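User: Structure with zinc ion, tokens only please.
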Amino acid sequence: MQDVERLKQGIPLLDYLERHNWTARRAGPRQEFVGLCPLHQDTRPSFYVNARKNLFYCHGCGRGGDLIRLVELSLRLSFRQSVEYLKRQLVPAGDSELLEQTAAFYRSELHRRPEAGQYLVSRGLRDPGLIEELGLGYAAGGSLHRHLAGLGYSFESLLRAGLISPQGHDTFRRRILFPCRQQGRLVNLYGRSIGAAFPHRLLPRSKGGLFAWESVGQFSMVILVEGLFDLAVLWQAGFRNTTCAIGTHLTPLQLAQLEDRPGRSVYLAFDEDENQAGQQAGRLLGPRLESAGLRARLVRLPARHDPNSYFVAGATAGDFAACLRQAQPA
Ligand SMILES: [Zn+2]
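Assistant:
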């Protein structure tokens, strides 16, 4: 039974649903979400999820329960089979180990490749302790497959995880790697291209919750940024209450995390893009957070800056603190 509780805690219901492409909007003030029911032919959203209690209920077909019940119903499995399925499918120990080995390999590459260090400096990241703490790595390219084969991993397992291309090339080639963890478990890898390739890349799996929420979630005032390099420079400047959703679109799980403390202040420090995308996202998210009982503030940075480029251009912690003080209600 203890096993079952651990399983349910390790796989939040919303996270599971998201990974199965369930889309939802918030319903009601607290951590409630509604979307189309995955258990019956639903035309109007009638499937409700309470993210805090980890429970669902469908007003269409009248069924409800926890994650295991959902698996029993959707896959027509017994309770015992559902538990086994979740253990196998969703906490793939081998897969998590594979990601850990990958992150460790890329970590060791970071210090061997001068272009990686130069890139970090160009993004304003200088503190070796922080680089270590974030577990940053670098994929030089072409060598992950050989390294992991030596540790007994098959070509297919790497391909399945999205770590290599069918030709055997590192999919993260020439990228700085940020490991994304949730409750200590490595759930994804974010790669930022240092060259001309498409800048952002994640493995084809859930991006997980808010970055470093285990430590940031304790703050009653948090700063939310778009990118992990924004987070890195802010942590370096002492703003350890900064978290990141990797993009401006928050998943239901990430929203539920922000909303887990009523009255929390959330400072949205998105990019001041020329095309207004960051500001637009902030203007949409702000009222949404407010209606959930949070205090949302929009942080304005000088034109065409994001928090990272602002610090790279010479801003100090004091400059950014001034931006926080001048933040406007959303
Ligand atoms: Zn239903």
